[in-house]
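By way of example, we now present a protein record of this kind:
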Amino acid sequence: MSALEQLAIGLRIIEDIVADVGGYASWEALPNVEKKHQTNVAWSRAVHHLGELKFQALSPEEQCWSDLFLWAGCGMHKEMNSVKWGAKSMEGFWFTLQAQELGAVLPIALFNKENAVVMADKTASTAKTHAEQQTSRGGVKTTALAGSIFRNKDEKKGQQDNFRWFFASVLGYMVQFPDTSNTRFGLHCDASSELIVHREIYIEFLDLIRHAKDKGLFTNMELNVYNALHDPSTLTELATLSFYSQSVSHPYMGFV
């Protein structure tokens, strides 16, 4: 449609608007605010009319696709939920008959400080059972603990400064660990990729932290991450989360 044809449609719609308010004299008597409103109405009618003409010029198949509307809600939350429940399903896998048939071994338990003391007590059999039931394990727990060490949300805690300088000395550039100590979409998967790709460097960094201390000991959290990075089952979960992010999460978020 030419510009002249579009102009003709616009003028005709304006004439209809003027007629609706009672003619040109009535139009001139309208307050400026009302004139502006009626002008906006005319503009909307013109756009709708031109759109309808364009739509009618489409083929039936093109009209079908043009009319198709899918409401999906927040794509980020759906991606987050898929990771959350996928990790939950992966956690339950270790207790299935299939896992038993494969001889799959549970990821190591990542005890907090209190439960670690209980597990070291040879006489606390009942308390040990309770501690084991209350303790998390696996990939997501590992990335959460790693985030608390390598990028703590409290700048006065964690090893984030040492972490950045150490990785810069090894890789030649500074990196930041994914911010898993805060709620962010997809960061546990990104952290899994980071731990898998640079696993040996993280182990070396944790050893450096330990040897820099007077007593040469890990904190409980550092020990958990160190042990997790040596545990085949935990590494399997980390690799699964990483693979999912690369094959599903990132392409999906790029699409939506």
